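Dear Dr. H.,

I hope your travels went smoothly. While you were away I took the liberty of generating a structure for the chain from your last submission, since the lab meeting agenda had it listed for discussion. I wanted you to have the full record in hand beforehand rather than looking at slides cold. The sequence, exactly as received, is reproduced here:
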Amino acid sequence: MTAPAEALALLGATPLFAGVASADLEPLLADFRLRRFAADSYIFREGDPGDHMHLVTRGEVKISRTTEAGSEVVFAVLGAGDVFGELAVLQENATRSADAQALAETECYVLHRQAVVAFLVAHPAVMWRLVTVLSDYIRRKDEAYSDLAFNDIPGRVARKLLELAAARGGSGAEAQVTVPLSQRTLAGLVGASRENVNRALSRFAALGAIKLERGRVTVLRPEELRRRSL
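The corresponding predicted structure, in token form, is as follows:
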């Protein structure tokens, strides 16, 4: 279990609250609520009330949406220290625009909308930082659309594996990082069929760039993936 003080440190490291002293974040402690979710359970579903922000302290969370045709689009896979649901709390009476599902046993600290909004009103500098966070969010969405338009499936798979590995500390040229990830989730992240993603992964494994295990991908030679992602 993550102690409240550790949760404040995690919160202070997020883009939204970066640079805010732990002492300034302490008023939020009274509104922290720890919730636990079993693997494969839903934290919320599309259309649910968007009145809470979540801070992941342990586990993995998939943010996704299912199309009318039944295929899945995955927007993000989040881990400890990541925040989600923050956009909905900024809008009164908002509803969730996607599903949030625990991929493993997960713990989240939950903050109610009223506490978040009151904090932002009392800290204008953080309010301005929110503009930066939203701008970065839009930029990353634009990059994702460009990637779909201009990069082939192996290139998109390579880039996404590098991105997920970097999020787990594997940014060095020789870093070897294991990413807990199903092929279905990866397919949703890159906007491709599971069959085409499987072919790309098998090719990268044959080249020695990755190692495939059930529900896990280990990046062995990131430089090979980096060349393919360009």
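Two observations you may find useful: Residues 4-148 form a domain with the Jelly Rolls fold (CATH 2.60.120.10). The first strand starts at residue 33 and ends at 37.

With kind regards,
E. W.
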